[in-house]
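Data availability (excerpt). The following record was deposited with the supplementary files.
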Amino acid sequence: MDPELLSLLVTRDMPFGKYKGRLIADLPGPYLAWFARKGFPPGELGRLLALMHELDHNGLSSLLDPLRKNRRAP
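Predicted structure:
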């Protein structure tokens, strides 16, 4: 797993749709599961959504907590 991609999950916003402006790491599981069923968008966004879906689906979202704390540090 690429650590850079994990870091992007807590810094990139969803660029469109119902959750536009929300961090990818904060997207709800059912929304991520919908993308998994319908198909992730191409490119980096799709890779990030697929990674977040895997983390969420496997109960590993807490792995992002240290990255969130580092992001908030001054």
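Summary of structural features: The mean pLDDT is 92.
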